[in-house]
Amino acid sequence: MGRTDNAVKNYWNSRLKKRIDSMQHAVNQHFERKKKQKILQFAQSNLTKTGDLENKTTQDLTNELSKEQKKELGSYLERIRLEYLQKILEQVNNQNIEYFENLACEYTLQL
Question: Domain ranges in the chain?
């Protein structure tokens, strides 16, 4: 039984953990892109001149949002995070199923 536990640990450390860690940068970029898109939507509804938006940072635009818009932005970002985490968990679950099916086949062939 110890070998199976060790095999699971090795699989986690060598594949899944590294894959999730390497995705962190992409995740951060994805969230920043989504945040900026939503802020720009709010800003465009607040401003009549869209040319002004190009010269402002995301932080400047966020500071100009109303309390209601900031609350909506927070809810939106939370929903995006949950959806993304759900996708990651589905991928990990599918990889685990595949791994254990392959492991079961190997053990069956050894018997």
Answer: 2-110
